[in-house]
Amino acid sequence: MACLRTLFFLGKGGTGKSTASALISLVLKEKGKKVVLASFDDAHNQADIFETVFSDKACSLGPCLEVLQIDRDKQIKRYLAKTAKQVKASFAYLTAFNLDHYFDILKFSPGMEEYALVAAFTDLVARYKTHDYLVIDMPPTALSLRFFNLPSLSLTWTDQLEKLRNQINEKKEIISRITLAGKEFERDKILQRLLQIKSDYQALKALFEDPAQTSFYVVFNRDVLSVAETRRVIEHLDRQVIKPRGLICNERTGANGFIQTVETLFPGIPIQTIPYSSASLIGMEALAQHIRSNELTFDKILPE
Question: What is the model's pTM?
Answer without folding.
Answer: 0.85
